[in-house]
Amino acid sequence: GAGVSQSPSNKVTEKGKDVELRCDPISGHTALYWYRQRLGQGLEFLIYFQGNSAPDKSGLPSDRFSAERTGESVSTLTIQRTQQEDSAVYLCASSLVSDFHLAKNIQYFGAGTRLSVL
Amino acid sequence: GEDVEQSLFLSVREGDSSVINCTYTDSSSTYLYWYKQEPGAGLQLLTYIFSNMDMKQDQRLTVLLNKKDKHLSLRIADTQTGDSAIYFCAARGAGGFKTIFGAGTRLFVKA
Q1: Element (H, E) at A101
Q2: Does the beta carbon of B42 lie under 8 angstroms from any beta carbon of chain A?
């Protein structure tokens, strides 16, 4: 597709269950980001992938959170043993590496996955 | 670490100008961005300014940067009801990829 696609758009789960969120970046974008947006708060950086480099996981809040990316395409964010404080909108963004090196690094965002943990 | 702050709400009348303010803490921030988020959608880049600029104008949008005070503003001229959205200020340092976002300012436009 033309934009960043995320699925599911909404996810309701029970406390303690595992969830998997998916992101399809724009074709050709080698950089991919995951953010968390809690209600009324800004975007919280979670993890960054760039090509074949080791991802920057410095924003992951706990070891219950993990993410993978297949080459330069799909990424999945997994939250194990979900807690109520994990409830948020999870946003994915992608950008062109050439854009990054030109220092603009314009990020293109998906519509997000709204996660509700009951 | 870097922090970006902005007020949470702004209400204006249709046709008036809107000014959304933002402050950031990292003086080495080289790119500053304004993103717009409409309901149910992801963030969309509106405009950005490089830190060696004071002002950037793009149609109805004017960005002002006071690097000394680390203050950024977005002015929307002739605000329309379609401008109602959440506006995020963001800052990125030189050489890095991390972009720090503010909490967003919710703009209400009254007809």
Answers
A1: helix A97-101
A2: yes
